[in-house]
Amino acid sequence: MVQKTGNRVVVIGTGAVGISYAFAMLNQGNCDELVLIDLNEKRAHAEVRDLRHGVLYAPTPTKVKQGTYADCAEADVVCICAGVPQRPGETRLNLIDNNLKVFHNIVGEVMKSGFNGIFLVATNPVDVLSYATWKFSGLPKERVIGSGTILDTARLCNCLGQAFGVAPVSVDAQMIGEHGDSVIAAWSTASIAGMSLKEALEKMPDGEARMTKIHADVRDAAYSIIEGKGATYYGIAMGLARITKAILHNQNVVLTVSALLDGEYAEKDVYIGVPAVLNRQGITRIIEKPLNETEAAQFAKSAGILREYQQKVAEYLK
Q1: Which of 49, 131, 59, 122 is closest to 92 using CA atoms?
Q2: Where is the domain boundary, 146, 177, 207?
Q3: Per the CB 3.0–4.6 Å rule, which of 24, 46, 100, 186 could disulfide with 241?
C-alpha cells in the first residue's frame, strides 16, 4: 500500500494551470502532500525540485513529490489540469474532442489505482469534462466537481468592486451557467451589504450600458488574456486552491462550481456552474438562486448547449 501522511492532493498535468495551482497550494499550506504527475517526466521532476526549494518559506512544510497514478490510491483530491489548451480565437467547446480522449485515459488510470476521493476538474470545456469524469469514474456525483464559474464569478466581483470602490470580497454576486460564451450574470440577486447592485446600476445614467459592458468584459476576459500572453492560469489556480481548501478543511463554503443537476434550476443530467456547498464530502447541496424570468431562460439555454455537447461522452462508454 502507498503510504501517505495527512491530506494528499494529486495534480495531473504540470502545464501553466497545473503548476500555478500547485504553487498556490504550497503558498497557502492547504495540504500535507502535493504529488505532481505528467507525461513529461523530466518537466514534472524539475517542477517538483523548484517547488521544494520554496518549502522553507511556505506556511507549512508541505511534502512535494513527483508521482505516478499509483499515488492516486490514497489521494483525497485528484485535480486534473491536463489537456489541450485553448488557443487564440478558439472557444472552450472547440477543445472537446481531443480532451475527451485525454480524459478517458487519465480517469481510467486513476480509477485503476483504487482511488476513492474527490475529482476536481480544471481542463476546458470544464462542464462537459466534469460530466465525462463522472461517467468514466463511476463515482457519486458529489465527488466529481468542476471549477465551473468560479473564475467568472471572481472576474465579476473584481469588476463590480472597482465600479463601487469596494474590495471584491465585499461583493455578493455570481456568474452561473456554462464556463464559456453562454455564461450568465445573476444580476437579480447581486448585492453589496444588502444593496441591490442591479438597482444601483440602473439608477446610474449609463446603468444598463454599464451592466452590459461588465458582463461582456467578464465573459470575454479569457480571450483578451490569451491574445496577450497565450493562456490564463493565475486566476483559475487561485480558484482551484480555494475549492480544495473548502473540501479538505470541511468548510461548508458556497462556491460557484460545475455540479450535476438533478431537478435544480428545472434541469437534469447536466454539469453546469451553480452555487454549491462544499465540504469534506464534496458537493453536499446546490443552492438554487431565485432567478428572474430572463436569467432563467438564459440558464435553460446554457444548459441545453452543454447537454448537447455531453452527448459526445456516450461514444466512450460503448
Answers
A1: 122
A2: 146
A3: 24
